[in-house]
Amino acid sequence: MNLLSMRVDVPSGSMTERDSDAEKRAVLQAEISQAARLTEMDKVGSAFAHELNQPLAAIVNYLQACHRLLQDQPTPVTLRVRQALEKAVGQADRASQIIRNLRDLIHKPEAERRLEDIGAIVLDAVTLTHAEADAAGVALHLTGGVGLPRVYIAKLDMHVVLLHLIRNGIEAMAQSPQRDLTIETARTADGSAQVRIIDRGAGLPAEVTERLFQPFVTTKPTGLGAGLSICRTIVEAHGGRIEATPNPDGGTIFSFTIPSAE
Ligand SMILES: Nc1ncnc2c1ncn2[C@@H]1O[C@H](COP(=O)(O)OP(=O)(O)OP(=O)(O)O)[C@@H](O)[C@H]1O
Ligand SMILES: [Mg+2]
Questions:
Q1: Who lines ligand 1 at CB under 6 A?
Q2: Are 234 and 226 in contact (CB under 8 A)?
Q3: pLDDT tens digit sequence for 149-172
Q4: I need a surface site. Which of 19, 48, 177, 218 has the fewest CB within 10 A?
């Protein structure tokens, strides 16, 4: 069953209906971009805070060690050095505080979760990426969709995951002779909803496989390396799992599950 061609290639209804469909898509697209940006800022903010806090803590430790070493040599010079060291500790603490404030500022509020039809969300995500895939010469195929459980999720967050994975798949096939991206939905043995994004690209570069879902891991010249780490954060926050496996036909399969709400 090719849901995509039903929905995208054979538009039906009057002109006004199609116009309002396009409007709804534009609104959804804007909301997803906003959600993606917030998640990205949150993620990058947390990673920076974490990365910067460690060296800052080390700086404070070294300064305090120097301060103690000079304690037993009270000369006018060491007194001034010790005062300067105290000020340096104060400034390092201030920097830590600024990082914490920044982190709180961009931390996005928990998106609201509702009972949703994952099949409909996948269909929307495919519709939204259709033009992008077309421009890259990639054919999108949507399969499965039978007996999917209802899931309790934040819709926009789920779109962020799907769009990241679809985009990665499209980018991975830039040099491929065969550019097919299949998005497959299914119900797993334990009743969860499963989405698989199957590309025919070159496969995962060896240097990233171990750290694939960590922030700032990228092989792309202009990549941030935020995409997959954001996907994992969102999927796991929903009680699901995400993984990547080689596609036996060549390429990569990204697969994630979301527990059933039933
Ligand atoms: N479908 C895929 N096929 C092959 N390699 C992939 C695929 N998806 C991701 N990768 C590899 O994993 C790396 C990390 O992906 P991730 O989405 O986290 O960051 P990115 O795409 O490089 O940058 P961005 O932050 O813009 O998403 C990529 O740079 C690429 O090397
Ligand atoms: Mg990416």
A1: 164, 168-169, 172, 199, 201, 204-205, 208, 212, 217-220, 223-229, 252
A2: no
A3: 999 999 988 998 999 999 999 999
A4: 177
